């Protein structure tokens, strides 16, 4: 399924500004990891390299951008988080998804998804972990990686990006507040207040997403992801594609 992210109507712009004020103090601390043998965790593939079909207008934007806050690590209280990433190029390619769990100062692979059903679509791809990925453990740190397969015989040339997340306990106060409301924007505000990036992401990008307030919330999320105007423009203009696993 696909539906537009960006909107130019004045009413939605006003709502976006209001949402920005609500979430304006949403700041996540940068985190570092000792494992240096895998992909850097800045959430972006290297440079503007894609699979050889890069359009000039997008050459400065990475082929893959994970929806993490400016490349920083994020937190979640969900053991079934939602993962999302941006694909720049129009030609569909196989995608490989990997999830690692930290053990000491290194990471071990706990799940790999690579099959004919997982192919790239230009725009923002959203994958709910569901039963395809093992339930995460509270108190653990994970690394997730997305790889765009340009040529299976030359994996070293594939664009890839990685990011980290921490699964933390749900505090009693937040649990009580969440139980008092079913309004998704209010829920997102509660998550944002506690710096729970992946829970805000899940709230903002899980269908149905037609409400104007949720559109504004998604724009706020994407503003946190983008590091320059070129990225912001492409992210805001993207369609969303839900991946069913």
Question: What is shown here, in short?
Answer:
It contains 6 helices and 10 strands. The protein has 245 residues and is an alpha+beta fold. Strands 1-10-7-4-2 form a 5-stranded mixed sheet, covered by helices on one side. The protein has a 5-stranded mixed sheet with strand order 3-9-8-5-6.
- Please give the number of β-strands: 10
Count of discrete domains? 1
Tell me the structural class: alpha+beta
N/C terminus separation: 14 Å
CATH architecture: Sandwich
Summarize the main sheet. Answer: 5 strands, mixed
CATH topology name, in short, is Immunoglobulin-like
Would you identify the regions where 5 or more consecutive residues have pLDDT less than 50? Answer: 3-10, 12-16, 24-38
CATH class: Mainly Beta
What is the N-to-C order of secondary-structure elements (H for helix, E for strand)?
Answer: EHEEEEEEEEHHHHHE
What would you report as the Rg, rounded to the nearest angstrom? 17 Å
How much β-strand is present in the residues?
15-25%
Mean pLDDT: 81
Strand order of the largest sheet: 1-10-7-4-2
Task: Describe this structure as you would to a colleague.
With 245 residues, the protein is of the alpha+beta class. The protein has one domain (2-243): Sandwich (Immunoglobulin-like). It contains 6 helices and 10 strands, in the order βαββββββββαααααβ. Strands 1-10-7-4-2 form a 5-stranded mixed sheet, with helices on one face. The longest helix is centred in the last third of the chain and has 14 residues, at 212-225.
